[in-house]
Structure formats: C-alpha cells, structure tokens
Write a structure and sequence with these properties.
Blueprint: E1 2-7, H1 22-50, H2 53-81, H3 95-123, H4 130-152, E2 171-176, E3 179-186, E4 193-198, E5 209-214, E6 220-223, E7 225-227, E8 232-234, E9 244-250, E10 255-260, H5 274-303, H6 307-335, H7 342-353, E11 358-368, E12 371-380, H8 386-393, E13 399-408
Parallel strand pairs: 12-13
Antiparallel strand pairs: 1-13, 2-3, 3-4, 4-8, 5-6, 5-9, 7-8, 9-10, 11-12
Subcellular location: Membrane
Domain Cation efflux protein transmembrane: 30-336
InterPro entries: Cation_efflux, Cation_efflux_TM, Cation_efflux_TMD_sf, Msc2-like
Amino acid sequence: MDETNNVAASLQHAHVFLGTGHEKSERKTWIVIWLCGAMMIAEIAGGLLFGSIALVADGLHMSTHAGALLLAALAYTYARKHATDLRFTFGTGKLGDLAGFTSAIILAMIAILIGYESVSRLFSPVPIHFAEAIPIAFLGLGVNVLSAWLLSGDDHHHGHSHSAAHAGDETHLIQTRVGTIVVEVFEEGVPPRFRVRSEGNVRLAAESIMIETVRPDGARQRFTLIDKVDYLESLEEIPEPHEFTAHVRIGDHEAYPVQFEEHAHSHGAAHRDNNMRAAVVHVIADAAVSVLVIVGLLLARTFGWLWMDALAGIVGACVIASWSYGLIRDTGAILLDMTPDVGMADKLRQTIERDGDTLTDIHLWRLGPGHLGAIVAVKTTQGHDADYFRTKLAAYPSLSHVTIEVQTA
C-alpha cells in the first residue's frame, strides 16, 4: 500500500521560500544603485564638461557596475512580489540564484575585457595622465568601499561571530499561523539566549510565546521571553551544549519543533544568499581592481614603470575570474538541483531508519536561501504512516517542503 503526503516542515502548502532578511537586502541594493548611478552621472557630466576622457571612461565603467546591481535588485523585487504566485510551483526562492549566475557570467566577461586590454597595453604602452587617473581611482575606491559597507550591513542573523562550535545552524525560520518568525541562539558578546522576531509586520507578544528545550537525554527546560522592542529575548541563559530540540509554542496553537545542533562550520550553501553574494562580489572586485590600479599608477609615476599599470590589470582580471568561477559553480549547482548538503541527506536517512524503517529513495534540493525541498520514499514494517515521518522530519527546520511516500511491506 502506498501513501503520499505533501507536507511543509511547519505549514502545509506554503511556497514562500525567500531568505531571511530578503526585504532588507532588497532595500540595501537599491540604495547602492542610487549611489552608483549618481556617481556615474557626475563622472560622465564632469568629464564632458572639463574635457577629461578618463573621467568619462570611469563613469561608463561605473554604469556596468550599476547594471549588475540593478539585476540583483530587480531579482529581489520580482521574487518578493511573486512569492505567492501559484504559477511558480516551488516559489521564487531560486530567482536570486538565477540572478547570481547571470551576474557571474557578466563578471567573467568583464574579467576577459580587463585582461585583454591589460595584455594589449603590456605590449603596446600608452601615455598615462597620472594627474587625472590617480584621483579618479581613489574616488572609485571610495565609492566601492561605501557600497560594500552598505551591502554587508550589520545583520546579526547573518554573521554571528560565534566560536567554531556554535557557528553553525543556529538561526531558523518557522512558518506559523501568525506568519514567519525567526528563532535563533544569540551569543555575540553576551551569554547565549534565545531571540525571536517576526519577519513581517506582526508584533509578537512575549507573554504569548513559550520555548521549551528537550535534550537528547530527555532533560527539559522552559524559557520565558521578554520584550526588547525589535525582538523577544529569553530571560534565562541557554546552558551548554547547544544541542537540543526547541519546541516553540505560540498562544494555544501547536508547538513548532526546531532542531539545534553543534557544528564546526558556518552556514553552508543551503543558507547562502547568492544574489547578495553576487552583488557584493561585483563591488569587492571593483574595489580590488581600484587598489591594484592605484598601486600600479603610483609605481608607474614614481619609477617610470608603465608596465606596472598593465600588470595590475592582469592580476585584477585573474582575481575577478576566480571569484566569477566560484559563483558560477555554486549557483549552477543550485539551478541544476544538485544535493546542497550530503551530510543533511545522511542525517535524514539516520532519522528515518532509527526505528527499523528503510529509506528507499531520497531527493534533496534547495528551494531558496535557508529552504530545502525533499522527496523521500520509506518502506516500513512497523505500520508507520506519513504523519509519523512528518513529525520526525519536523526537527529539521530547513526542510520547508517535504513529500513523503510510505510503502507498507
């Protein structure tokens, strides 16, 4: 007998698989676009007004930079606006990966153009107008540093500076009846405590939420939450080790189980926002090229080594090409539905087979930043149904859409 049951880890038939802080990333990207656009217009207008071809050239270069960021911003906006569009079977979470892949291709083309021009100038040097080129390079570097700072921001839920043991899977999204909430263990410079916040405009009441942890040895502990304006925080500290199942109960509704485990690695590919990664890579690549250009120009002016300018360009092209390759590799794997985490697949197998059942087939892929989809086929001799396995897999909060097929032997 076969039984198929489509379940989400916490909320059935939910297909909103956007990453944590999606709207904030969208806003930051648009701000940087306006900054780059203003700089581009100022450079082109100034170059035409004062007759500086170098200034015009840098302004045109800034336009390609702004274009790549525009691609990222449009992807954020489109994904958000169509997050609940039923035409997208598995939501719009992968749109950022598609934009990141496209941006990586553009980045590779820029690396080729820089490399070609640099090699050409290495064999056929041209006069350099140092008085104009050096200030422009410093100006471009300043804009890129500011852009990188704006894009990186200070999102504690993306960049914990935990010790190695806690740098892992400590931030979880839960789809609840009141919307999406984020539950995390926060310990950056403070004793470890739970923090809970809403992803939307829903105001969470501290008295309506309760967290109870259940450790592998059966020990239980309840945590009281207090209001910290932007988030709720547990009054009690979380004892070591941080390996337990946290049952988050909202009002009189069912409890949502969240699995916390000790890891020796940071957020993996399943949690990475490749759209923001591509935008940051564009900015950092441009900043790196600016630094190399400044060094090359200063050495060329001081010692008369005109070839240093071309050499700096070649090095910059190689660095950009390397970053582009890494981005193409990672986003391409996601778009082709490669298993994002082999270790996760092994854990699912162990969880399902722990009570004597057999996992006969498993497909695991990424739906969006921090969201995984899974199709599992189980053969049971214990008479277990799909709900039984759904409950077991609910301990993995990154499993946002699960299809379970149960065959009774």
